[in-house]
Amino acid sequence: MLDKASQTLEMAAAAGADQAEVFAQESRSLKISVYKGEVEELASSSGSGLGIRAIIGGAAGYAYTTDMSDAGLASAARDAVDNAAVTAADEFTGLPETGGEYAELDLFLPALLSTPVAEKIDIARAIEEAALGRDSRVVQVEASQYVESESRVAIANSKGFSREQREGVCYAFLQAIAEENGEMQTGISFTIGREPGQLEGTGCGEEAADRALMLLGARQCRSMSCPVVTDPFVTASLVSVIGSVLSGETVQKQRSMFAGRMGERVASDLVRLVDDGTHPDGLASSSFDGEGVPCRQTVLLENGVLQGFLYDTYTARKGGAESTGNASRASYRSLPHVGATNLRLTGGEAGSQEIISGVDHGLLVTEVSGMHSGANPISGDFSVGAAGILIKGGKLTEPVREITIAGNLMAMLKSIQAVGNDNRWVPFGGSIHAPTLLIGDMTIGGK
Q1: DSSP-assigned letter for residue 195
Q2: DSSP assignment letter at 110
Q3: Whole-angstrom distance, CA of residue 437 vs CA of residue 417
Q4: Average pLDDT over residues 184-213
């Protein structure tokens, strides 16, 4: 792939580009779905392609192709140059400067490929069996899946950058259904790793079953204001929304509640939020970003104080800053844009049970729906559907559902009273390393 990228770079220069960048990618995926012990779906796919960004006098043009022949690459290079010729110039457009230290990361494990497909099927079966065997009230599993993906990415540009990377990841997912007295509740769980041997199948199935079972008998509670405990799944949803408005692009467009607040205390002093692009366990880790800039750890909130934003090369130049290595690319079909890597909310000392035991009257939230659509990124106001369990006297009591949680994200951040030590990686809305949280007071909408 790196040879193809370098070859296309020369073609773009010959076609008239002042500067050029080539992003080449080949990928493969496998998906296995099991239902009642039988393989319901087994699908694999693979593909490759290449995208070229050509720059002429501050104007950028982009083109991509899946035709990796010499003629196909030359045609794409000419298209990129032609597109640049009819695009308006932008003073902030340009390639990143070369240099910097690149983390040595082991993101691909050979066992991802060498493990027989039959063993991968057994993982999905084992998860389903664990869920169904957890309790007689777990009557069905809607989906038990094993999924893996592998990719190789190469980037070369006219400033001398030339590097490639191979990465792989796998995960298993389950949705269990519990039933009692005609009422049905669902629970989900997942397990992630870089090769099948790292997946925890039994634990995944049992957790999904437990999450469904604990909501049986749930009813709508009365409206109230009370402390709220969020489990890591829910915390991850909150962090994903907060991370999205900490990008330089949203700030520059005045679409972020953090705009103009650099150096201010915007959260509880217990809050430390970082974007860690080189964490060895992070699913979004990489040695370089979508433009070839070294990935790194960027502190966003420290002791509740806003420390910085996430930038790619374009937004960094526009904001008078430097790239934080956060140029994200969905594939070779798209231009780079600002995106978080691994968002980590860290620093907690208390266990989840200790946090719950300290709440006299409150709510443990285990599910939220519509977090991204229900939150206003500018004002921070939000209202989302939720389900969970009431807390009385430090103990979990009655399950509740069909309720809403409303408030303001900034106020919520400032009212965090405890951060748990039970961080886990949650692939909801990105790659999030999230713990249990205790939020001092929130509005619960019920009956």
Answers
A1: S
A2: T
A3: 8
A4: 97
CB of 119 within 8 A of CB of 111? no
409 and 242 Cβ atoms separated by less than 8 Å: yes
- Tens-digit pLDDT profile for residues 30-88: 999 999 999 999 999 999 999 999 999 999 999 999 999 999 999 999 999 999 999 99
Nearest C-alpha neighbor of 420 from the set 150, 234, 208: 234
CA–CA distance, 19 with 52 (Å, rounded to integer) = 11
Task: Say what the alpha-carbon torsion angle 285, 287, 292, 298 is, to the nearest 10 degrees.
Answer: 60
Question: 131: alpha, beta or left, given left = phi > 0 and alpha = psi -120 to 50?
Answer: alpha
DSSP string, 412-433: HHHTEEEEBS--EEE-SSSEEE
E strands present in 158-265? 162-180, 183-193, 224-230
CA 145 to chain centre: 19
Q: What are residue 20's phi and psi, to 5 degrees? A: -155, 155
| Every domain of the chain and the residues it spans | 2-213, 218-447
287 and 294 Cβ atoms separated by less than 8 Å: yes
Q: Which two structure tokens, joined as six digits, stand for 402?
A: 């069909």
CATH class of 2-213: alpha beta
Q: How far is CA 320 from the centre of its chain?
A: 27
Determine contact, residues 54/77, Cβ cutoff 8 Å.
Answer: yes
For residue 26, which amino acid is it? Answer: E
- Nearest partner of 163 among 327, 339, 365, 1, judged by Cα: 1
Look at residues 175, 191, 167, 164 and name the one whose alpha carbon lies nearest to residue 139.
Answer: 175
**Helices assigned H by DSSP within 263-408:** 313-318, 352-357
Per-residue pLDDT band at 429 (split at 50, 70, 90): confident
Which are the contacts of 28, defined by CB distance < 8 A and separation ≥ 6? 44, 45, 46, 149, 150, 151
User: Largest alpha-carbon pair distance within the chain?
Assistant: 74
Q: Whole-angstrom Cα distance, residue 131 to residue 96?
A: 49
Q: Spell out where 307-423 has E strands.
A: 327-328, 337-338, 342-346, 361-369, 381-392, 395-408, 416-419
3-state secondary structure of 223: coil
